[in-house]
């Protein structure tokens, strides 16, 4: 007789989920470790539970990302990792194409092609390209901004000089003859 389900939820278990859980290959119906105080990263060995249908890891303090090995769990119909500190992409499997966003929220920063989750920025290469583009664009924008401000200042100075020659000649003439008009007071 093989163990078909393991339900150890609503306890005060703490520590990490051991990788040895992957050796429970006969586990078919359910693994429920929800509502505990488990922490650490989820073990890659979870993917060895290929016959498992229901996996509930919710309401713990798991961190890191969801193991990509979960994509090999072809029998999995429910995966609940809500209320943890997980981040990164949700593995893309046929199961998760129609998954409920409530299985994944709230978490630290999960992303994916599911309604309610933000899209992932595909790869670090894409993020690198974005940073590289921003690094090139910022100096160009600053130079263009400086040129526009400098052009405005030059235009203002030139328009004032065009008005000033006539005013300055009249002011010089007034100053030259101001002694003659002095009444002594």
TrEMBL record:
| Reaction equations catalysed | L-threonyl-[protein] + ATP = O-phospho-L-threonyl-[protein] + ADP + H(+); L-seryl-[protein] + ATP = O-phospho-L-seryl-[protein] + ADP + H(+)
Q: What class of enzyme is it?
A: transferase
> Carries keyword Nucleotide-binding?
yes
Protein family membership: Belongs to the RLP family.
**Molecular function as annotated in GO:** ATP binding; protein serine/threonine kinase activity
EC annotation?
Answer: 2.7.11.1
Its GO biological process annotations read:
brassinosteroid mediated signaling pathway
Annotated membrane topology is: Single-pass membrane protein
Name by which UniProt lists this protein:
non-specific serine/threonine protein kinase
Q: GO terms for CC?
A: membrane
Q: Which residues are listed as membrane-spanning?
A: 133-158
The organism encoding this protein is Aegilops tauschii subsp. strangulata (Goatgrass)
């Amino acid at each position: 007789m093989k163990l078909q389900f393991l339900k150890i939820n609503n306890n005060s278990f703490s520590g990490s989920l051991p990788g040895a859980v992957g050796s429970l290959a006969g586990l078919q119906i359910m693994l429920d470790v929800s509502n505990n105080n488990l922490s650490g990263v989820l073990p890659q060995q979870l993917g060895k539970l290929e016959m498992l249908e229901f996996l509930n890891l919710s309401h713990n303090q798991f961190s890191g990302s969801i193991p990509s090995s979960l994509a090999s769990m072809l029998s999995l119909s429910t995966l609940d990792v809500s209320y943890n500190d997980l981040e990164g992409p949700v593995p893309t499997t046929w199961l998760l194409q129609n998954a409920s966003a409530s299985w994944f929220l709230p978490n630290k920063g999960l992303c994916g092609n599911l309604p309610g989750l933000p899209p992932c920025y595909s790869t670090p290469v894409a993020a690198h390209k974005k940073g590289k583009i921003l690094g090139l664009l910022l100096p160009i924008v600053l130079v263009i901004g400086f040129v526009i401000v400098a052009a405005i200042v030059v235009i203002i100075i030139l328009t004032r000089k065009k008005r000033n020659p006539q005013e300055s000649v009249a002011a010089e003439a007034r100053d030259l003859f101001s002694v003659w008009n002095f009444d002594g007071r």
